[in-house]
Amino acid sequence: MPGSCGMAEGWPASAASALRLCASSELAEKGRAIVFDVLHFREPARAFALRFDGRVVAYLNRCVHVPTELDWQPGEFLDSGREFILCSIHGAAYEPRSGRCLGGPCGRGRLTALDVFEVDGEVWWRSTRDTQPAPVLETQGSPSQ
Questions:
Q1: CB atoms within 10 A of CB 115
Q2: Cα(10)–Cα(52) distance, rounded to whole angstroms?
Q3: pTM for the structure as a whole
Q4: CA distances from 94 to 41, 77, 79, 139 (A)
Q5: Are 87 and 70 in contact (CB under 8 A)?
Q6: Cα 69 to the chain's mean position, in Å?
Q7: Which of 3, 22, 35, 57 shows the smallest number of beta carbons within 10 Å?
């Protein structure tokens, strides 16, 4: 995050509330996604970010058809041709750039997009009123402060 001296050049104006997801280099083109925990309408949920056509996109990890996680293996969301996001349960296909349903039981729906951006080799996520960071839970045996 930018320090107290102000925002780094290239940062969106509302980036002050952004959270770092990963280094840009961790997201290979049409490769494995990073998966992270969020609260969506105050309920625990998972989200994911992946690189597609040179751009990082992020969505809730939830099929429009049935609220189940999409990935068929941890972090694996794309079909074998690496062109579509597929639901591992019923085969609903989504367009990775927009999250729009292209076929299957998802109808005219679209995945819930999250606001992500890249600055200085880092991927950042900006929370919204509806989707917030999940609280970090302490592991047993770790110091309480």
A1: 14
A2: 21
A3: 0.84
A4: 23, 10, 10, 36
A5: yes
A6: 12
A7: 3
Per-residue pLDDT of the chain (145 residues; tens, 9 = 90+): 333 223 344 545 455 579 999 999 999 999 999 999 999 999 999 999 999 999 999 999 999 988 899 999 999 999 999 999 999 998 999 999 999 999 999 888 999 999 999 999 999 999 999 999 998 776 565 454 4
Establish how many alpha carbons lie within 13 A of residue 34's alpha carbon, considering only the half-sphere containing its beta carbon: 21
Q: Both tokens of residue 82? A: 């690496």
Question: 104 is written with which tokens?
Answer: 């299957």
Cβ-contact 49, 38 below 8 angstroms = no
Q: What is the DSSP string of 76-120?
A: B-B-TTSSSEE-TTT--EE-TTT-BEEESTTTT-B--EEEEEEET
Give the long-range contacts of residues 38-43, CB within 8 A, separation 24 or more: 38/114, 38/127, 38/131, 38/132, 38/133, 38/134, 39/131, 39/132, 39/133, 39/134, 39/135, 40/112, 40/130, 40/131, 41/130, 42/132
